[in-house]
Design goal:
The chain is an all-beta fold and about 120 residues long. Helices cover about 0% and strands about 50% of the residues. Strands 2, 4, 5, 6, 9, 10 and 11 form a seven-stranded mixed β-sheet that branches. Strands 1-3-8-7 form a four-stranded antiparallel β-sheet, with no helix packed on it. It starts with a strand and ends with a strand.
């Protein structure tokens, strides 16, 4: 059974930094693309960053240059380092895995989410 568990969400002030972590068990982690998604209150879910294996990373435009995705295949872990946070980054962040070449679709396994609140 695949388990996806996020952690690291917190309340921070604008301009601050935060690091999210995710562990994924029950699958061959290195064989999967992994990504971070977020859903702000009252809005739909959007993809934030993905790593399509071999550390080929992509970012949505609004976080480019501020967020960094990384993975540790040995630990079956995924991370999202977030800096220069703004109130627009307030959302529940989800970790996901899938055998996909797309950053927006094709993710089959999802965590329960971790909340990030950025205050001004």
């Amino acid at each position: 059974r695949v388990q996806v568990v996020e952690s690291g969400g917190d309340s921070v002030t604008a301009g601050g930094s935060l690091r999210l972590s995710c562990t994924i068990s029950g699958l061959t982690f290195a064989d999967y693309a992994v990504g971070w998604f977020r859903q702000a209150p009252g809005q739909g879910r959007e993809w934030v960053a993905c790593d399509r294996r071999l550390s080929y990373a992509s970012y949505t435009a609004s976080v480019e240059g501020r967020f960094t995705i990384s993975r540790d295949n040995a630990k079956k872990a995924l991370y999202l380092q977030m800096s220069s946070l703004t109130t627009e980054d307030t959302a529940t962040y989800y970790c996901a895995a899938g055998k996909t070449f797309s950053c927006a679709t094709g993710f089959d396994y999802w965590g329960q989410g971790t909340q990030v609140i950025v205050s001004s």
